[in-house]
Amino acid sequence: MRTIKLAWNYLRIGIANELQYRVNFFIQLLQSFIALATGLISLWLVFSHTTQLGGWNQPELLAVMGVFIMMGGVIQSAIQPNMQRLMDEIQDGTLDYALTKPVDGQVLISIREFRFWQTTDIVVGMVVLVVAVLQMQMSIGIWQALAFAVALLLGGVMIYAFWLMLTTTAFWLIRIWELVNLFQGLYAAGRWPVTIYPAWLRLGLTFLVPVAFAVTVPAQALTNRLTPVTLVEAFGLAVLLLALSRFIWRLGVHGYSGASA
Amino acid sequence: MKHYLGYYLSNMRIAILGQIQYRAQNYFYMVGTILEPTVYLVVWSTIANSQGGSVGGYTTGALAAYYIVWTLVRQMNVVFTPYGWEGRIQRGQLSGELLRPVHPIHSDISYFAGWKFVQIFLWLPLGAVLALIFKPVLHPTWFQVVAFFFAIWGAFLVRTMLYASLGMISFWTTRVGAIFELVFALELILGGRLVPMTLMPDWVQHVAAVFPFQWTFYFPINTLVGNPGVSEILSGLGMQVLWIAIGIVFVNIIWHFGIRRFSSVGN
């Protein structure tokens, strides 16, 4: 309960901070549209040469892109800013300030930052998704919608756990800003359904990096490709990754000696 | 001239010695840049396979060659980012660099040129693994190989000038993110970074002809993996020289007016 209240307060501070810079909203909007246009052009280019890609037709791939943009918005607004701040603080030795607070360290470092304007991408992704569903000309049942929501939530949890594990390596490797580039490269692979990739890459994108569960699986839920087994697997993996990230975080903090900040 | 040569060689040596220490970090960055074309390669190979083995004249082997050489060209293409100029101007680090007797762009060019040797060295095993997985097909002549060597350095300089000009917009406004992203998007589409230019519709190719982007990706890659004639290669190298010259003029003009607006103290 206290944690929720704390998260809510940080969220409010984050939003209030960003509201001071209103022009940034329009700049963010422009950037979102540039990214959207690039994505649409790639899609159009693919379908100017073929009618289906690995069993997915155009509106279905548009749905994948919608989920990709939406999840990207969640990552950019709520997950990545926290992780980048953690990276900097480990390198500078200022993490002491967070660790000495009377709440759980992992909770605190995960909720401190929120980039409100980045949520533009969540809205843009939703619009793309709605257009895709309309183009598919099929009705979405309540169970489908529910499976989609659950898959999306589990995907978000997995991405968080994965990002935290990556960031925690800073306790041992120190300079890791290149990881941001690595993560973005990995995430960009989610723009297409992972089923089109060769087996080694598909497995990597499913179990090493949970991009498959974050983007492809929710899109599968929406396009009637999801089996209940996948959803159970997603739940299992989410719990496992969360526990693992917790373990690695504790290990890192245990070995952290600060830098007399 | 001799003075500059000594400066360049020393700074390149510093870059090599500095960057070789950060091998893990260099690899993190490199794997990120290699994943991007791997995704394109898989998508276009899937299309080629569903259409009997080729798309727009590119077989799966040729596509593999294109995108693997892409990863090498990408290493050459890493230049001082416009976001670096933004930070440099916003936070005033430029002040310190202004105290030196040479233009700061010389330090960027020489440092990144030296870094290339580390990048290429670290790229070799990754390139070999990609080749084993995707089985590229290419038969370059010796002339193509030699031309490729010059073309990748040309690409490096074209991109350096382009992004230095772009970054220096930060002298006037610090809200440059959207402008940078727009240029990156144009590069992706008009440069042969997303797909070989010949897979694009004709009108896109016409538009691309008036921008410098294809001389940083498509031209060097095609020089090695395509079947360009001698005259095509030579005129391409000529276009690179032209764009470098235009870039130098732009950098000088923007610098000339921009630096007057710069008023920062500190480091």
Structure description:
The complex is a heterodimer of chains A (261) and B (267). Chain A is an all-alpha fold and 261 residues long. Chain A has one domain (2-255). In chain A, 76% of the residues lie in helices and 0% in strands. Chain A starts with a helix and ends in a 6-residue tail after the last helix. Chain B is mainly α and 267 residues long. Chain B has eleven helices and two strands. Chain B has helices at residues 2-19, 23-50, 60-77, 82-90, 94-98, 104-134, 142-167, 177-190, 202-208, 218-225, 230-261, and strands at 54-55, 58-59. Chain B has a two-stranded antiparallel ribbon. In chain B, a hairpin with a 2-residue loop joins β1 (54-55) and β2 (58-59). Chain B is globular, with a radius of gyration of 19 Å. The relative contact order of chain B is 0.14. Classes of the chains: A mainly alpha (261), B mainly alpha (267).
List the SSEs and their pairings:
The complex is a heterodimer of chains A (261) and B (267).
Chain A: H1 2-19, H2 23-47, H3 58-92, H4 96-99, H5 105-111, H6 120-136, H7 142-168, H8 170-173, H9 178-188, H10 199-208, H11 211-222, H12 228-255
Helix pairs in contact in A: 2-3, 3-6, 3-7, 3-11, 7-11, 7-12
Chain B: H1 2-19, H2 23-50, E1 54-55, E2 58-59, H3 60-77, H4 82-90, H5 94-98, H6 104-134, H7 142-167, H8 177-190, H9 202-208, H10 218-225, H11 230-261
Antiparallel strand pairs in B: 1-2
Helix pairs in contact in B: 1-6, 2-3, 3-6, 3-10, 4-7, 7-10, 7-11
